[in-house]
């Protein structure tokens, strides 16, 4: 193991050499010291002499400790009430004792009054959207690709794209037109997964006249296959699921009548 250099001795040697007239470049080359480091030592020498070249301790001059009476009050409250550190600190501050909740926590740990979890937390369960067969779940979404809107439909299992088209506007009519074409060519899926976009909300409302349905899942919201649309729970925040249905206009999955009856042009 190489011997470590005596930094204080090296600093004094560099300062003496500089005082004797040696150049900074020669000193830095001989000691393998950066010029910036040498000038830092030189400034410290000019401000405090050779004594200022010795590194001072970073230890604080005053070490603050919690008074014993405060420690006793924290432990007594913990044993009597079993309160958490936040509540104990708030109670003491109301009584004129300035203390932080982290200080209360450290006092509790040192006194052995911190009760950890007796068992691991319950593992969360996740609802997975993956399907095991083609046409079990289609995913549909829109994206603005200036100057047009890209509407795409993706089969969840095979990752096949049953439908994809650019439109001048990202409207519900265009979504219905693309969905109609994909259903006619590849068959009707069992479920559909979308987000809470207004196009899909309108899609569900405009298609409610028929009885033939497609079970859909809207993000954390599910669409049920039922004769009439219904909502249950809340539809924001991803909390309690909301259910609604999307319907088509014939037994073959044709959705074109929902658009032509209103006279809309989808392309």
Tally of helical runs? 9
The whole-number mean of residue pLDDT values reads: 75
CATH class of the largest domain: Alpha Beta
Estimate percent helicity: 25-40%
Overall number of structural domains = 3
What structural category characterises the helix and strand content? alpha/beta
What is the beta-strand fraction? 5-15%
In whole angstroms, the N-to-C terminal distance is 79 Å
Say what the CATH topology of the largest domain is: Nucleotidyltransferase, domain 5
Assigned CATH architecture of the largest domain: 2-Layer Sandwich
Order of helices and strands: HHHHHHEEEHEHEEEH
Radius of gyration: 37 Å
**Shape field:** flat
- Counting DSSP E segments of at least 2 residues, the number of strands comes to 7
> Which blocks of ≥5 consecutive residues have pLDDT under 50?
203-213, 218-267
Largest sheet composition: 7 strands, mixed
Features:
flat; alpha/beta; disordered C terminus; Nucleotidyltransferase, domain 5
């Amino acid at each position: 193991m190489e011997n470590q250099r005596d930094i204080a001795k090296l600093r004094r040697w560099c300062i003496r050499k500089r005082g004797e007239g040696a150049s900074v470049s020669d000193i830095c080359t001989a000691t393998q010291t950066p010029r910036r480091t040498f000038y830092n030592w030189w400034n410290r020498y000019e401000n405090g002499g050779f004594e200022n070249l010795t590194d001072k301790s970073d230890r604080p001059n005053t070490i603050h400790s919690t008074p014993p009476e405060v420690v006793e009050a924290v432990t007594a409250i913990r044993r009597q009430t079993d309160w958490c550190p936040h509540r104990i600190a708030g109670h003491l501050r109301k009584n004129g004792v300035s203390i932080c909740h982290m200080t209360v926590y450290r006092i509790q740990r040192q006194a052995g009054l911190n009760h950890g979890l007796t068992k691991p937390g319950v593992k969360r369960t996740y609802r997975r959207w993956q399907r095991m067969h083609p046409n079990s779940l289609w995913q549909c979404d829109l994206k603005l690709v200036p100057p047009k809107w890209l509407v795409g439909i993706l089969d969840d299992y095979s990752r096949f794209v049953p439908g994809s088209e650019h439109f001048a506007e990202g409207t519900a009519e265009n979504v219905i037109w693309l969905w109609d074409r994909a259903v006619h060519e590849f068959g009707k899926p069992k479920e559909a997964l979308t987000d809470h976009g207004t196009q899909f909300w309108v899609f569900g409302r405009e298609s409610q006249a028929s009885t033939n349905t497609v079970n859909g899942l809207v993000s954390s919201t599910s669409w049920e296959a039922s004769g009439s649309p219904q909502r249950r729970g809340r539809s924001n925040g991803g909390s309690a699921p909301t259910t609604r249905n999307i319907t088509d206009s014939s037994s073959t999955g044709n959705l074109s009548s929902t658009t032509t009856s209103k006279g809309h042009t989808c392309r």
